[in-house]
Amino acid sequence: MKLAALLITALIPAGAAQAQSQPEQLASQQAARAAQQPARASASGALQQKLAPGFAKYTNEVLFGEVWPGPELSPRDRSLAVISVLIATNKPGQLRGHLTRALNNGVTPVEASGVLTHLALYAGWPSAVSALEVFDEVYTERNVDFAALQVALPPLAAAATDAAGADAITAQFGIVAPKFADLTNRVVSGDLWLRSDLSVRDRSLVTIAALAGMGDADLLEPYLRRGVEAGLTRDQISETLTQLGFYAGWGKATKALAVVTRILGAEAPG
Fold it and tell me: How far is Cα 105 from Cα 78, in angstroms, rounded to an integer?
């Protein structure tokens, strides 16, 4: 190929080459450089393009071309929601790239590890344990200071409504499952939600995303209300669940948004 190009160049009269305008010369040089470089990989990847071009089109043009850059939600919040769903639904293969993206988007290692701890209780130990190796690989590649993850953080202040919530849990489960009621009040509400590795706003976002991703839309109401109290807007919650249509499926996103419509639909947007 290079030899043929040299031969063609040699056959062009010197005057013709000199007659080429500067913009044309620049365009020719850029085209030559582009031809020598391999095609840049798209978000969809070679397999999608090869096996399911329609899938690749949606990946490139809709998910990464329209949804991820959307101004309705920050890239950091989008990443928090996506890694939450991937952990909760036990998708370590996809988690690796999105955990890297989350760190690039401003989620700190302390916060990301806080998500993992939180979802051990909301999605179950097996799903959280399945993510540990991915976290270790990504943190190691990025030279994360593991010692910083061991630093004890001061707890957040308890909310004024926490005592009433504990009484409600005891009243609901105290007779049938007293141990469950005790663990809910003492560990989940009394410790996990007071950990400062995540703000209450972000912890609410993580919980909403995980419950929606697992199909537990019927459990969303208290977390929607808590999230709004902590600073999440209805529009941010709706955009989070819209994005999760791509990561948990349209059916689960539809169920979750139906709950948002019922609980927050009458509230002012923003």
Answer: 9
For residue 21, pLDDT over 90 is answered with no
List, in sequence order, every beta strand (DSSP E) within 120-241.
none
Residue 16 makes CB contacts below 8 A (sequence gap 6+) with: none
> What would the pLDDT profile of 210-226 be if each residue is shown by its tens digit?
999 999 999 999 999 99
DSSP secondary structure letter of residue 111: H
Both tokens assigned to 9: 């160049």
Phi, psi torsion values for 71, nearest 5 degrees:
-80, -5
What is the torsion angle, in degrees rounded to the nearest 10, for the CA atoms of residue 59, residue 60, residue 63 and residue 69? 160
Q: How far is CA 100 from the centre of its chain?
A: 10
Q: Which residues contact 22 (CB under 8 A, 6 or more apart)?
A: none
Q: Are 189 and 223 in contact (CB under 8 A)?
A: no
In this structure, of 2-11, 150-159, 191-200, the range with the lowest mean pLDDT score is 2-11
How far is 179 from 165, CA to CA, in rounded Å?
16
Q: Record the pTM.
A: 0.84
Tokens 């988007």 belong to residue: 105
> Distance of alpha carbon 12 from its chain centroid, rounded?
55
Using one digit for the tens of pLDDT, what is the confidence trace for 23-70? 455 445 444 443 333 334 589 999 999 999 999 999 999 999 999 999
How far apart (Å, rounded) are the C-alpha atoms in residues 169 and 191?
A: 15
Mean pLDDT of the chain: 88
Q: Which residue, among 230, 208, 228, 227, has the nearest Cα to 219 in the 3D structure?
A: 208
**Tokens 């807007």, residue located:** 233
